[in-house]
Amino acid sequence: MKITDAIRYSFYKREFYNDAVRVSVRSCIAFIVLIAFLLSILIGIGVYKYSNKAVNDLTVMYENKQIPNITIKDGKLSTQPEEKFVMDFHGFKFIIDTKSQTVLEEQPANTILLTDTNIYQKISSAETRQYELKNIVKNFTLNEETVKKYKSTVMFWFVLLTWLFSFLYTIVSKTFQGFFFGVFTYIISFFLNKNLSYPQSVKITVFCLWPATFFSTLINSFRQLHGFWFLYLFIVLGYIIFAVHSQNYLSAPKTNRDR
To answer: Which of 5, 121, 133, 223 is the most buried (most CB within 10 A)?
Structure first.
């Protein structure tokens, strides 16, 4: 069985799951790496499009003199001109108020307030986070010149690091989920009289994670769901039942690769 075939067969083919219990551990690892690569590419493309638009919007705002020049020296922020600045930017409300006259409690959620020494992030009416500016950055300059000069460099490293993080995170998370949901697969196989071993259960579980990830992400992209993980869990369990039910034997002989 080719690992690339598993990308499509894992969605619908009973024969695939019947054979999946006999694949090598190396094949399971290769499949996890493959889906991590595919997902991280999609995430990287999305991050690039979003961040590119944000940087372009920022450049236009500086060209139109809509935002001030920002300077941080020794952990203290100042603006030129020195006045309060408010901006709605890609779903967030940004406020720069070096005189600390803004009442954050009166602001909506997703508000970020910068004073001369602190950053405040209002996540909701019940949760606000505070960060000392000097612990994040001590010296920094943001103006039209620096945006144009470093736009390409910042974009490259930001997208690259995001892609790398999502790639490694997916490998770790899907491996953990394979072992975790493998317990459910093992229990379900017992109730369905398929009697899979735990290593066999983990193997077919790994392949169930891909269609569950695809469908839950697709649905969530059209409509943001608060219960995303419940949807994901529901689809995973559905595919586990489908995969276990696809086994056409009661007890497969164990091989060295199953142990």
So the answer is: 133
